[in-house]
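Continuing from the previous page of notes. For each protein in this section, the sequence appears first, followed by its structure tokens. Read the first protein now.
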Amino acid sequence: MKTLRIAAVAALLSATSAFAHDYTVGEISIMHPMAFETAKNAKVGGGYMILTNAGDQADTLLDIRSDVVPMIQLHKSETDANGVARMFHLEGGIPLPAGETVTLEPGGIHVMFMGLDGNPLEDGDEVKATLVFENAGELDVVFNVEPRRGDAMQHMHHGKSD
């Protein structure tokens, strides 16, 4: 019975680590960069992650680059008073105040992978990218492509519910 429990715990940990991958540059922590799989005819896809600035100085995610997708930008979605959703490019980047966490998620701030035309993001794919911070410098990360399902965003929080 003890062997069975150890095997179950090991399986759970390896399954969790498949979803959880974190990076650090300077005082900035990047938790679980991921993207959802896209439809075969999709022209765009979204990328998400959690950024934490543990330092005492503000920083900014200025840019993101990738050789894997034709175009990549930082975007924000907002809904106006009439209920119309609009998305726009964040030309100044994403501010990361000292001691705070910024979550890139659907319906808010996110990474936009553009020009996918006929080359969809599929479950298990990896999108390699470079994050460019104003103070912390550059960091290579991998966005794991995951299936769309109701609990997918919980993986960004490492299984924690808010």
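Done with the first. The second protein uses the same format. Note its length before scrolling.
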Amino acid sequence: MAKKSEIKPAEFDKEYYEWIAELSRRYRQCQIKAAVRVNSEMLHFYWSVGKDIEERKYENKYGSHFYENMSRDLTLALNNRKGLAPTSLWYAKSFYCLYAPLFENLRQDAEKSEDANLRQLAEKFEALFSIPWTHHQKIIDKVKGDSQKALFFVHKTLENNWGRGVLMNFLSTDLYERQGAALTNFAATLPKVEGDLAQDYFKDPYRFEFAQLNGEYTEKELKDELMRKLSQFLLELGKGFSFVGREYRITAGGKDKYIDLLFYIIPLHRYCVIEVKTTEFDFQDIGQLAGYTAMVDDLLNTGQDNPSIGLLICKEKNNVLARYALSRVNVPIGISEYELARQQLPNELQDKLPTEAEIEKRLASK
């Protein structure tokens, strides 16, 4: 019996394999684009459904079981093919009602000014149809009708390519309220546009819920934990932060100085010197940070980098004293607090609760 012919690879044909790799990349890109288009079309459909429900006032007309009845009737109209669940129909109306008034107000404002504002409005509106429907459902659940807050999370999802789990985490950590809330002197030390951009990069407070620290802990232990969970620390800092080093040595005047944490903010093209304090803010902290920031500018700046920024993250701060300290500093500096999840409980209860590691160990032993 003749052997079945075999398809053999084109051995040692570099051009052939490069072509195959290119085809595979194009295929994956096509799949992604197709999925994005399908998602966008479905979101536009949900928007239209929500618009119809709201404008026709059917929910008021047909009572509390309207969504169940509509889901059933729509399924029958589709010849018993899978239709839309009652919850999906409710979210469709919520989706429309959440954003429609906001964009109507923005449209009216944009029409009174330049065409460029209308283009920006159109881009903001289309962003709604660029993230998954399940993301929208989580946002709707959490923002409680706050359309500005909802739109903030839509744009953050797009900017950072957040999965649903990451989005849910930030929805639960008051990111909208914390973003850009750090106390800074950027208005006095940076040009307005640069200062506004830099301000948006810093939060207050920072949430170090991932840090497994019980009761009393030292500054070194906190920094050890931040480095051990570096990926989560970077996620909390935000998109664009690149880690340069810990206890970064920098020498001037024959003296070695060690920076707690040195980062580079890629979109801003500038270094960020971070000092972490497990104590309350005090004046000398600003002097130390200002000195480190000036040294980085003098010794590390290539001439293509923008002036460095300092960030002090402390356990707590007195805002009045912090403003006094910043008012006499000529380098850009921000001051923020940090929080650990377990700090929200009384001290006597914190030590009695098991840590995440202890819970995992107990579950594994069952």
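What the second structure shows: The mean pLDDT is 85. The longest helix spans residues 14-56. We return to this in next week's lecture.
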